[in-house]
Here is the input.
Amino acid sequence: MKLFIYIMMAVLLTGCAQTAGNPSTSIKDGHHHHAFKDGQTIAVGKVKTYPLTKLKTTTIDHTIKVKDNDTIIYTEDTGHGIPTKPAGEGHTFHAILKVTYKQLSMYMLDDGTFVTADPKHVVVTEKGHHSNNYPQYKMHEDDVHYLNSLDKKDADYKSYKTYAQQFGQRQYDYTREMLMHTAIHAVNHQTPNSLEIPKESFQSFEAFKKAK
Here is the structure.
């Protein structure tokens, strides 16, 4: 079975930050709703705190306007090209997530990119109440195939399936947290401290049963 951490990185590149070929665009009339791959619809006001840094996210439905040309947008750093670009004075965007870390804050836009939430650089022009589409964890098809190949009548199968899903979700959350930790520093022109994902090996079904 594949190590989930590598799968999570692949998911992040294709799902959470699918903007390499689809740069963020400003909105002039209404909202542009982007469908994240394997996304989920979440209402406004849901709060989540990430374990490694205590970084906090809150789902929102805001229209924001950029106040100057110093503001930048951060896109997932894939190693190809520069991960930041100017937001553009006067441009308007649809923000669907507010992220806070210590004294820093930023917005995630509806295409998965990030921009500062510092009121010196952006202003909220409208607060909506619509649910929006967000990235979510989905198990890789190879791992689904592996689970399906196991004996579902085995007494330990259900607990192992739960273990596999929780492991994948945990690794996905670590990767999301690392992305946002980097982004919130970048858009606020700060240098982040190093952040490492805890090393955790995934157990095969046989190893899982022996460890019980």
Observations:
- Residues 1-33 have pLDDT under 50 and may be disordered.
- Helices lie at 4-16, 141-149, 157-187, 205-211.
